[in-house]
Amino acid sequence: MTSAVPIGVAARETGIKVPTIRYYEKIGLLPPPPRTPRNRRSFDDCDLRRLKFIRHARGLGFEIDSIRALLLLQDNPDQSCIAADQIACARLTEVEQRISSLAALKIELERMIAGCKRGHVRQCRVIQVLADHSQCQNLRH
Amino acid sequence: MTSAVPIGVAARETGIKVPTIRYYEKIGLLPPPPRTPRNRRSFDDCDLRRLKFIRHARGLGFEIDSIRALLLLQDNPDQSCIAADQIACARLTEVEQRISSLAALKIELERMIAGCKRGHVRQCRVIQVLADHSQCQNLRH
DNA sequence: CTACATCCTCTAGCAACTAGAGGAGCAAGA
DNA sequence: TCTTGCTCCTCTAGTTGCTAGAGGATGTAG
Fold first, then answer.
1. DSSP element (H, E) containing B129
2. Residue B35 in 3-state DSSP?
3. Is the Cβ pair B130, A81 closer than 8 Å?
4. Confidence of residue A13 (pLDDT cuts 50, 70, 90)
5. Is any atom of strand D within 7 angstroms of residue B40's beta carbon?
6. Which of A13, A20, A108, B77 is most buried, by the most CB atoms less than 10 A from its CB?
7. CA gap B138, A56 in Å, rounded
8. Does A95 contact B76 at a Cβ distance shorter than 8 Å?
């Protein structure tokens, strides 16, 4: 009903910036929408749904290639969804690893900052720890 | 004593790849080392320490510009170290924010995956949630 | 009639590297 | 002697996911 909106409206509705929408079209995430006689892109509800899907997935940190795979699955609803599950699981693993490595960094940074007496650089614990990795508790980085 | 090593050895000692060391020189993080008569870079202990400092800071997620500032402080040990402290604190805040947003993503991904019955894409919860943001508990992303 | 908004295309830039082309010098082995 | 292999050099272009800007067309409002 409301279909056929220009790119600016599509951007407002989906929260994706205008150049980014064009970029998604260029890399083939979004099928090229039809053009008006004045050569303007004209997006329908289906395009908007697709754009929202992309935005949501990007918000969850999925890479463009994963999103491409997820969209392909969405386009073929009779397929098994094991692939979608795998992509989501892989992303979950990534997120878990990232969280644990950031947690370690947090501890290191806190130790650094706590040790700093706010005097001269010569005695600054932040600089000292950076200069000498062996002063780190956590050896993973 | 052991000074004056070529770039390959410097790379091995510091754990930074050869092209990356050249890159750091190019962007001015590392002063251009002297060359041998055969035009080879020759790194001394001071360069190696600086490279290790950079590697450690990169490992902690500091951006190049922050590292530039930290190195400048290290080069002037009589200055106050408040600036170093501020850079570290800013990084800590970033890390904390990143952790909490990743924690939210983790919950969302887990909910998604738990809801998936591994049947057809048509009923796949992963795809459904991506397609409809309102099904998300967490509205931050 | 002019200002403003919206759209179009195309190119170039960001961070922080990484990969590859194309070339040189030197030592050890066949 | 020749070849293989290692290290080094410079330079350019690619990566990811956009973002910014140039330069131009068209429509509407005042």
1. helix B125-131
2. strand
3. no
4. very high
5. yes
6. A108
7. 12
8. no
- Residue A35: helix, strand or coil by DSSP? strand
Tokens found for residue A56: 């949501």
Distance separating alpha carbons of residues B49 and A56, to the nearest angstrom = 44
List bases, strand C, within 7 Å of protein CB: 6-10, 15-20, 25-26
Q: Is the pLDDT of residue A141 over 60?
A: no
Q: DSSP state, B43?
A: B
Q: Spell out which residues of chain A touch residue B91, defining contact as CB-CB under 8 Å.
A: 109
Which of A49, A56, A63, A134 to mutate to probe the B interface, most B CBs <10 Å?
A56
Along chain B (141 residues), what's the average pLDDT of each consecutive run of 10 residues? 85 95 95 94 95 91 90 85 87 88 86 80 81 65 57
| Greatest Cα-to-Cα distance within chain B, rounded to the nearest angstrom | 70
Per-residue pLDDT reduced to its tens digit, A59-93 = 888 899 999 988 988 888 788 888 888 888 988 99
- The number of residues making up chain B comes to 141
At A16, the amino acid letter reads I
C-beta separation of A7 from A21 below 8 A: yes
* Residue carrying structure tokens 């599950």: A85
